[in-house]
Design a protein that fits this description.
mainly alpha; two-stranded antiparallel sheet; 2 domains; 146 residues; 68% helix
């Protein structure tokens, strides 16, 4: 059995690393969303939630302002979602990546696909051999002219 090409090994290694990074990101976003829900519940129990569910902070002049930064309007449709919902949505999006990875791993290759790959590899190898032969002829012609 031939050793596996380095490029294939690196591709597999990169996929494994990306999968691990996605899993960590998913867990992080779930933790953040859970923390935000706990904080919101804490502020609600203290009675310092504003009319929109925002935490209000009291300025020394007696005016109140929301503790949230102004939103950028060039974002997606997530503007009307809470921070916790955004993190939960991101975690579910990462879940779809895992589902696609599982589907890719479960994919079976049809005989037509395998024969197409064989034909392509054969053509590629023939082209490489032809180019190598042409370079060899050009190199020997160059040596004869010197």
């Amino acid at each position: 059995m031939k050793p596996q090409p380095l490029s294939l090994s690196m591709m597999i290694n990169d996929r494994i690393k990306r999968r691990d990074q996605r899993r960590e990101s998913q867990e992080r976003h779930k933790r953040w969303a859970h923390d935000m829900l706990l904080e919101e519940e804490f502020y609600r129990d203290l009675g310092i939630l504003g009319p929109n569910g925002d935490v209000t902070s009291h300025v020394p002049s007696g005016k109140t302002r929301t503790g949230r930064r102004p939103r950028r309007h060039d974002r997606e449709d997530n503007d009307d979602l809470s921070f916790a919902d955004r993190h939960f949505n991101h975690a579910s999006l990462i879940s779809t990546y895992f589902e696609r990875d599982a589907a890719r791993a479960a994919t079976t290759y049809t005989p037509e696909m395998i024969s197409a790959v064989r034909i392509a590899r054969t053509k590629r190898e023939q082209r490489r051999q032809r180019l190598a032969a042409e370079r060899k002829v050009q190199g020997s012609a160059l040596l004869r002219s010197v």
